[in-house]
Amino acid sequence: MDSHRRVEFALQRNRQNIGRRYIEVFRCKREEYYTAVAQEVSSSKFSSSPRRTGPPSRSKPSADGSKDDHVVYTGILRMRGLPFSAGKEEIIDFFKEFELTEDMVHLVVNPDGRPSGEAFVEFRNAEDSKEAMKNDRMTLGSRYIELFPSHMKEMDEAIVRERL
User: Fold this and answer.
1) Are 36 and 92 in contact (CB under 8 A)?
2) Residue 131 pairs with which residues in a beta bridge?
3) What is the pLDDT of residues 47-104, one digit of tens each?
4) How far apart are CA 44 and CA 97, in angstroms?
5) Straight-line distance from the first to the last Cα atom of the chain, in angstroms, rounded to the nearest whole number
6) What is the rounded distance in angstroms from the CA atom of residue 159 to the CA atom of residue 107?
7) Among 88, 77, 52, 56, which residue's Cα sits nearest to residue 146?
8) What Å distances lie between residue 126 and 61, 76, 110, CA to CA?
9) Dihedral, CA atoms, 13, 16, 22, 26, nearest 10 degrees?
10) Closest-CA residue to 25 (of 38, 37, 11, 9)
11) 3-class DSSP state for residue 48?
């Protein structure tokens, strides 16, 4: 099996369980992979405490709830961890202090048409999306929601992927 097919096979395991653990599988750049491996090796050599497993670290919220300064806000946020039953109305309510309409919310579905647990939200401007980051890791229903600054290309790719 060639490496491209192996990658596609692995990506099909996204959002499934290994035993009782829920897993996420995603593409990453080669540099991100090497960074994650280096972090794992160095933490196992120098620490006996539990280690963070998962993707390479991303920007963490600061004390005021905003992401690190190097993040560029474009007015688009990606939501991850949505309840599969969540619709556009629930997302609009999640960001109730912002003036959102249904056409500004884009639910991502799997190729089989089922909700993926992700959505993209277009805010009126970059400042609103930055302000909306205060909702990062808040709950919608019984699920905590992760927010990530995004951009039009990522949103378009996710929406096109759902139509394939």
Assistant:
1) no
2) none
3) 443 333 334 334 444 444 444 557 889 999 999 999 999 999 999 999 999 999 999 9
4) 44
5) 23
6) 8
7) 77
8) 17, 7, 28
9) 30
10) 11
11) coil
Rounded distance, CA 86 to CA 79, Å? Answer: 12
pTM (2 decimals)?
0.60
| The pair of three-digit structure tokens given for residue 12, joined into one six-digit string | 């099909």
Q: Which amino acid is at 153?
A: K
Per-domain residue ranges of the chain:
3-46, 76-163
The sign of the dihedral angle between the CA atoms of 93, 95, 96, 100 is negative
157 vs 18: CA distance, rounded Å = 28
Domain made up of 76-163: CATH architecture: 2-Layer Sandwich (3.30)
> Which tokens sit at 107?
């639910």
Q: Which two tokens stand for residue 69?
A: 């300064």
Residue 35: exposure state from Cβ atoms within 10 A (0-12, 13-18, ≥19)? middle
User: Angle at the Cα of 8 (from 163 to 145), degrees rounded to 5?
Assistant: 65
Joined together, the tokens standing for residue 156 give 């378009």
